[in-house]
């Protein structure tokens, strides 16, 4: 069983290196760099890219880099990403601004190798923490259930619509957590926004193990 990780990258300089270094044990670690700002379902891409590409080349030279001019966040982009790893059986498509701890990453990788589903969705309301501005301001406020992995032969339509005959598994395991730094990419969440929304949410601090993954890098 060959597993690849394909990560879409544009404005992720604050988190992309911990994300890519998280992907230990995959047969191919691939970045698909977005040459143009993305419109559609993805929020937070600037007109001019940040230092993400520069940092990847410096700190993760083993990562394969591909480029695309696709500028819509939809099935065309996702299918292109899956097609880059057509020599592998499964493809992890976690977002570039997400990080898992070592235990959860290994659980995910092992499950992909030992099961035979076409699409692996994540119960994000249960298993994801969104971080706004810094490590102290995380919130379990996701609403979506989206694919985070699939067979490389899977092809979506519209957005994340998969064929009706596809075998689908939804990950909602206890204590499995995806740490999502949604407010960290450009245009980033501001201190003023945080002050205005200080009573909006009961904030969840980020665990030290995840914070340490950022401290391992001197960039």
What's this, in brief?
Helix content is about 25%, strand content about 25%.
Explained architecture:
The protein has 219 residues and is an alpha/beta fold. The protein has helices at residues 16-22, 52-59, 75-83, 102-114, 124-127, 191-196, 208-215; strands spanning 3-9, 28-34, 39-40, 64-68, 72-73, 90-92, 98-99, 119-123, 128-131, 138-139, 145-151, 168-171, 178-180. It is built from 7 helices and 13 strands. A hairpin with a 6-residue loop joins strand 9 and strand 10. The chain is globular and about 45 Å long. The relative contact order is 0.20.
Q: Estimate what percentage of residues fall within beta strands.
A: 15-25%
Instruction: Provide the residue-averaged pLDDT.
Output: 92
String of helices and strands? EHEEHEEHEEHEHEEEEEHH
How many individual β-strands? Answer: 13
| Helix fraction bin | 25-40%
Sheet having the most strands: 7 strands, mixed
Q: From the alpha carbons, calculate the radius of gyration and give it in angstroms.
A: 17 Å
Instruction: Give the strand order of the largest sheet, numbering strands 1, 2, ... along the chain.
Output: 4-2-1-6-11-8-12
Structural class: alpha/beta
The poorly predicted ranges are: none
Query: What distance lies between the first and last C-alpha atoms, to the nearest angstrom?
Result: 34 Å
Q: Shape, please?
A: globular
Helices, by number, come to 7
């Amino acid at each position: 069983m060959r597993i690849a990780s394909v990560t879409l990258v544009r404005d992720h300089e604050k988190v992309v290196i911990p994300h890519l270094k998280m992907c230990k044990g995959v047969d191919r670690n691939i970045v698909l760099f977005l040459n143009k700002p993305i419109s559609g379902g993805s929020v937070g891409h600037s007109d001019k890219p940040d230092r993400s590409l520069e940092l990847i080349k410096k700190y993760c030279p083993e990562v394969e880099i591909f480029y695309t001019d696709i500028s819509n966040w939809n099935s065309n982009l996702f299918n292109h990403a899956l097609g880059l790893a057509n020599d592998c059986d499964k493809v992890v498509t976690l977002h570039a601004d997400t990080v898992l701890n070592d235990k959860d990453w290994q659980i995910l990788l092992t499950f992909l190798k030992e099961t035979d589903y076409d699409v692996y969705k994540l119960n994000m309301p249960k298993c994801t923490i969104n971080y706004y501005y810094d490590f102290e301001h995380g919130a379990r406020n996701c609403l979506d259930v989206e694919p985070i992995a699939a067979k490389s032969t899977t092809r979506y339509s519209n957005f994340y619509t998969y064929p009706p005959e596809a075998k689908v598994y939804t990950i909602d395991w206890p204590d499995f957590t995806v740490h999502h730094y949604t407010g960290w990419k450009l245009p980033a969440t501001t201190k003023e926004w945080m002050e205005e929304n200080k009573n909006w949410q009961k904030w969840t601090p980020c665990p030290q193990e995840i914070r340490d993954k950022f401290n391992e890098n001197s960039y």
